[in-house]
Design a protein that fits this description.
Number of strands: 3
CATH class of the domain at 31-136: Mainly Alpha
Structural class: mainly alpha
Shape: elongated
CATH architecture of the domain at 31-136: Orthogonal Bundle
Length: 240
């Protein structure tokens, strides 16, 4: 089991989860994959902007973070098995009423078969209203953009590996300072700081450390040295 170094100091983002989830749903959910899917949707849809907020089933099938979470309990599972877990978890959450689904058929394509897109909403007032508007014909959901192939994240490199991969041989005197940084900052902060240093051709630990210190002081979004990585979307504002 990989240990967690703790939440970093300074401003961090939070995902709002209704109290009713903990009092009504959590005691009833008896399937780990269903719980992971439910929490993931709260997080993912909260990162979207505008309305309506939803994911299609095809998009869920390409969400690497979600598939990696599912793989934690089935490390021997291949992509097909993980997708099966995802679909079973989705059906459980839909049957429970946590999630809502709208299925829309488009005109027949070249093979003569109509294409069906499945849209997933969380069962909130906004989600219920969106579903009702779709059924009434007052809301038209656009087709999703490019969907990534299913993938599972590989084990995250530790800070020593990042140093040697991006800077060079690790001086022994720096080992303790790097360990302290790994225990202080979130892993994705450290990876992003190394990436920025490489992009700016500033392969020095002092430069990377200054980025991390600035993010901890000013907030990562305000202190980024390069544009945030987002996935474009024609229908919704990109997740930030």
């Amino acid at each position: 089991m990989r240990t967690f170094s703790g939440f970093p100091a300074g401003p961090t983002r939070f995902t709002p989860v209704p109290d009713l989830f903990f009092t009504a749903l959590l005691p009833e959910i008896d399937d780990l994959a269903e719980l992971q899917l439910t929490l993931y949707l709260f997080w993912s849809l909260n990162r979207q902007k505008g309305s309506p907020r939803y994911l299609t089933v095809r998009e869920l099938e390409g969400e690497g973070l979600l598939l990696s979470a599912l793989a934690a309990s089935r490390p021997d599972a291949d992509a097909a098995a993980l997708l099966q877990m995802l679909h079973e978890a989705l059906e459980r959450a839909l049957e429970r009423g946590t999630l809502l689904r709208v299925s829309i058929s488009s005109p027949a394509e070249s093979d003569g078969e109509p294409h069906v897109e499945h849209y997933i909403f969380v069962n909130t007032p906004q989600g219920r209203q969106a579903v009702a508007d779709v059924k009434d014909g007052t809301l038209v959901l656009e087709r999703p953009g490019v969907v990534q192939e299913p993938h599972v994240a590989q084990p995250r490199a530790n800070i020593y590996e990042l140093y040697e991969r991006n800077i060079g041989v690790l001086p022994p005197l720096l080992a303790e300072e790097l360990l302290e940084a790994e225990q202080t900052y979130a892993p994705d902060w450290i990876e992003d700081a190394f990436r920025i240093a490489v992009e700016h051709n500033a392969r020095r630990w002092r430069y990377i450390r200054s980025i991390l210190e600035r993010w901890a002081r000013d907030g990562k979004d305000d202190g980024r040295s390069s544009a945030p990585r987002t996935r474009p979307s024609a229908r919704r504002s990109p997740r930030s």
